[in-house]
Design brief:
This protein is an alpha/beta fold and 440 residues long. Helix content is 37%, strand content 14%. The chain has a 7-stranded parallel β-sheet with strand order 3-4-2-5-6-1-7, with helices on both faces. A 7-stranded parallel β-sheet has the order 10-11-9-12-13-8-14, sandwiched between helices. Helix 2 runs parallel beside helix 3, helix 3 packs across helix 4 and helix 14 crosses helix 15. The chain starts with 9 loop residues before the first helix and ends in a 45-residue tail after the last helix. 46% of the residues are buried. The chain binds adenosine monophosphate. The site of adenosine monophosphate has 12 residues, from helix 3. The site of adenosine monophosphate (AMP) has 12 residues, from helix 3.
Amino acid sequence: MKFADLGLCEPILNAVASEGYETPTPIQAQAIPHVLNGSDLFGCAQTGTGKTAAFALPIIHRLMEAGTPSAKVRRPIRALILAPTRELAIQIADCILAYSQNTFIRHTLVFGGVSQVPQVRALQRGIDIVIATPGRLCDLMAQGHVDLSHVETFVLDEADRMLDMGFIHDIRHIAERVPKKRQTLFFSATMPKEIRELSGTLLVKPVSIEITPVATTAETVEQGVFIVPQSNKPRLLQTLLADSEIARALVFTRTKHGADKVLRHLLQSGVRADTIHGGKTQSKRQRALADFKGNRLRVLVATDIAARGIDVDGITHVINYDIPVEIESYVHRIGRTGRAGATGIALTFCDPAERSKLRAIERVIRQPIDVLKVPTFVAAPPPSAVNHDFSEREQHRPARPTEGGNGMPPRRPQGPPGERRAFQGNRAGGPPRRRDYSSR
Ligand code: AMP
């Protein structure tokens, strides 16, 4: 299958070629013909599958079919794309800019945390596609700056995350303002009951496409868990980072405060790192992300919301420093690595008190996660520790230090000589090791 087979017009095909895309990804091959036909779509797919192009390319094509708009009238908003976070909205806008480079299509971004003045000005100039986060869009609608009455295509990207972030009322409010006769494209990485209910109220006879089923975490991601008390996590992280195999890591913490604390530890031990979380200004978040993308940082410490949708190539490791509060965030988090066919590694630090959450994650992903040995000197109690729970250490049989003495998990005997990896799991081949987690 080639992009040309999908019925997209020449300017779009040229843009796709200049982006270096040779063949459509599965979601693109399946979704584009339906979106071109005007059907509603329910897409169950994670970021990294090429879903942005799956909706953006046919939207641009359809907008162009009407011909060049008159310069005399202000162009109405004809496509509205809602995204949960500013970062994802920016990423979508970057894609639309690239895909529409040879066309007359104009787009703009609407999101909070920055002045609304340039956004209002852009809307007044006349815009074909608006990419927005729900909160700021509702604010601008309330002020009379946004007219959605000409919207032909309404996209909800990462709808599950929008619900998690409490945007349900905003979404319903916005949906009431777009015409009833429209095309709706609804994307979600997971499919909890609330998502099915919401999609049921917004979509009409949708075509359903499921690319990465909820329960199968990216197959290219190897997963492991360290059972480690909270107090030993800084040492464990530091020890793991002694391995240069961890070239680019995204570290997740539960809170902003936690992210700042981890960052302090990392900077003290000389690791190039920064944070991305909701407590930082938009410009600082963007700078941290740009530094991470530009390889100027080895580690980016993030909270779930800030990291949502981050599309950075070559993330070798995702480290769940804190186990996610919402189980399904685990799927989103580890989806940041192992993209585009590359192998990624996801390591989770689980406090002994949080084992039940680990089980819940294993149930959601329908597979057990390998328990890795905590390096001995990480597991050893700090000299000042009193009342330390030694039974935990016994139970998880701390590893003997490896030859390098860095406490990394032991090498696989069959690995190539000189190979040193933070976690080797099933990478060297063979079927994934299955364990009956119910018996543990
Ligand atoms: P998305 O899932 O939309 O966030 O896309 C993930 C990444 O895949 C982005 O960096 C896109 O530029 C890239 N991409 C999308 N479609 C293709 C394609 N057909 N071939 C190669 N790369 C693609």
